[in-house]
Amino acid sequence: MFFAAVMGIGGFTLVVGKALRVFELSRYVWIFDALTILSVALFCGIVLIYLAKIIRHYSAFLQELKHPVRINFFAAISVSTLIVLMLSRSLPLGFALGLFYFGAFLQLVFSLYVVRFWFVNEMQQKMANPAWFIPIVGNLIVPLAGMSLNLQNQNESLIPLEILIFYFGMGSFFWILLNAALLIRLVFGENLPQKFLPTLFIFIAPPSVFGLDILVLFEGYARFAPIYGIVEESVYFGFAYFYGIASASFSVALFFMLLMISLFRVFTKLKFALSWWAFTFPTSAFTLCALELFVQGGSAFYMYLGFFGVVLNAIIVTIVAWHTFLAMKRKEICVLEQ
């Protein structure tokens, strides 16, 4: 679950970078640089620690692979890899491409493993929780990472659009199905355990990232129109159509954000757990989508929502990071649990 911290801090770093560009605050770029270094260092440190765990406690690692809840958090590894790639724009091209394909392949492996696990094991309704979205959100992150590489290279499309559409389609399909299944479980099934209540925030992430995918995939597609030999007017007409779809998807995310705000008093009564990091990345995804809608559509509505998201994201990341530090100081992290 520590990789959720990389997703949280890395996602916030992406938000800071986006906000600095959108609001033309280039003199504060050092904040983005510092957060990028922190995110990359945290990612590398956790990777080394987890590799050491696999070597020294291989049986415990195998148990996690068979746990109906913990298997969903493995996808945080591939998502973190792709987020680090999006942050590290100065990487050599060959290394960046290798990192992308490694992260994308890892994401596909985790997705196949998790869905296969659901198919071959008897899953009880009470086992379902919003953490099941993590592998799905991971598939939707792949197009963002791929297009970030494509847009850095103005001469050619480095990552084939077909690959990005594959992950986009897969993530979209399972998001819709799981969203319905999890809502039924939450309404008619047992209440979530208290430590998993923060994962309710994950409902915000899929529609936010889906909207981002639509905007980034087809805005980039329009830029590469001469390469693909497509009539420019038809591309921009299609882009306007997809902007509406992205706005509608973001509206779903906005509804869930308002729902989470209405549960504020419930969240304030929770005892700290690493699951608190579930508050962070969905807020980042929400903010990034709002800012991208503002950039491409110019609506003040999305600008204000983006500004709200930046402030909220900063507050949440600060609070969760501070409580994580205190828990580590009290040695309440990495405690054996069932």
Topology:
Elements: H1 3-22, H2 29-56, H3 58-65, H4 75-87, H5 93-120, H6 133-152, H7 161-188, H8 205-223, H9 225-228, H10 232-262, H11 264-268, H12 280-297, H13 300-329
Helix pairs in contact: 1-2, 1-4, 1-12, 1-13, 2-3, 2-4, 4-5, 4-6, 5-6, 6-7, 6-8, 7-8, 8-10, 8-12, 10-12, 12-13
- SS elements, strand count: 0
Contiguous runs where pLDDT drops below 50 for at least 5 residues: 222-231
Q: What is the CATH homology-level superfamily?
A: Voltage-dependent anion channel
How many separate structural domains? 1
Order of H and E elements? HHHHHHHHHHHHH
| The CATH architecture | Alpha/alpha barrel
Coarse shape? globular
Q: How much of the residues is beta strand, in percent? A: under 5%
CATH class: Mainly Alpha
- CATH level 3 topology: Glycosyltransferase
Number of helices: 13
Proportion of helical residues: over 70%
Task: Please explain how this structure is put together.
There is one protein chain. With 338 residues, the protein is an all-alpha fold. It has one domain: Voltage-dependent anion channel (Glycosyltransferase). It is 75% helix and 0% strand. The chain is built from 13 helices and no strands. The protein starts with a helix and ends in a 9-residue tail after the last helix. Residues 222-231 have low confidence and may be disordered.
How do you describe this structure in short?
With 338 residues, this protein is mainly α.
Key features?
338 residues, mainly alpha, Glycosyltransferase, 13 helices
